[in-house]
Structure formats: C-alpha cells, structure tokens
Amino acid sequence: MNQKIRIEIWSDVVCPFCYLGIRKLERAMEVTGLTGYFEIQWHSFQLDPDFPAGITENTTAYLAERKGMAQSQIKQIYSQLTEQGRKYGIDFQLEKALSFNTLNAHRILQWSKTTGRSTELEEAFFKAYFTQGADLSKPENLIAVCKGLGFEHQEIQAALKDPQYSIQIEEDKYAASQLGIRGVPYFLIGEKSAVSGAQPDEVFENTLRNVFSQYQSPERINTTDSAGVCPTGGECN
Hints:
Blueprint (H helix, E strand, L loop, with lengths): L4 E7 L4 H17 L5 E7 L12 E2 H7 L5 H16 L11 E2 L3 H10 L5 H13 L8 H10 L4 H9 L1 H17 L3 E2 L1 E4 L3 E4 L4 H14 L7 E2 L6 E2 L6
Parallel strand pairs: 1-2, 7-8
Antiparallel strand pairs: 1-6, 3-4, 5-9, 6-7
Helix pairs in contact: 1-9, 4-5, 4-8, 6-7
C-alpha cells in the first residue's frame, strides 16, 4: 500500500470518552498489527460552543447546578471512568476538571495539523485537562502545554489570533452535521465505516481489519451503535 488509510476523529478536549477512544484505537492498531497502514486526522467538535467565553467553572458544580445531576450520580460516573482509564494508562483526576469554552484549544489543534503532530498535542491536552486540571481556555496554559512538546511560543500566539483556524473549526462542525454526528468521539475509518463512542476493543479491532481488507471497495458507511459518547450539551454517558 502506497497510501495510508485515513481515520478521521471528531473530538473535544473536555470529553473523557475521547481520551479513552484514542487509547482504544491505538491499542487496536497495535493488536492487529496495522499501525503503519493508518493515519489519523483530527476534527473539532465543541460539546458546549455556547459556554460563555472568559468563564471557568468546576465541572462537578456545573453538572450539579446546570444539568441537575445528583452528587451520587456524578461520583459514580467519575468512579467508572477512573476505573476504565486505568486499563489504558489514563490517570483520570476528574474532581479537578473544569468547564469552559474550548474554542482556543481547538484553534491550536487546527494549527497543529500543519506540524504533523496533532495526535501528540491532542493527547497532551487530554492529559493536562484530565490529570492536571488545566484550564485550557487560557492562552498561557495552552502555550505551556505546547512548549512542553517543543513548539515555539510565538507560533502558538499567532495561531490563536489567526482567523483561518476559526474558519476550519466551523468547517469541521459542518462536516459533522452532514454526517449526523451528535456526540463524540466519532471515528470515520477509511471513509467506509464509523465507530461512535469509546466502544469495546474488539469493535475497533474488527473495524480496522474489515476496512483494511476492503478499503478499495465502494461501500456505504457502517456506524456502530453509540456507547461511551459525550453528546452536545449533555452529560457523557
């Protein structure tokens, strides 16, 4: 194969299932021995695009006050996610999680496509948010994560101000609407099959094998049932 098969991922940096999903996908590529045959392209999807800019809230309080969730329900969700995360090397510290508008983070992620290191940066943002409790709406925190990967301060500042990256975010949102995506993570693999949510490992493994063997055949998009999805404007389930 001269050309790699594309895996397109719609994601938000505050979505725990997106963090789990990329780890599940990476494990599936290793298990199937197909890592070198696929390439990943990230797309922006804001779970709460109307969240007021410049405001940050504790996520536990946000879920309780704005979503009407009981503290016991929130603790149960946190416990389940923490247990799942350990299996994939993720240290979820969800009591530190914050809620904010993720637009700035998506601007940087759009810029990262020009560097060929989008997956590395996406996972660095996930770790900063879910383990360290970083407020990724603040430019100084985004810059700190990027500098930790060796990116230049000036490049990040320029990307935050460049209108083309905001346009690309809107293009990703439009593409998501055309595909009927209502929650993330969403994986479109080889333009043939889609996995919606952080599905069991075997779902990713079987989908990768099927697409690899049939990617040259014209087929409709097959989508898995949604599970482990963060829906727009709602709590992750």
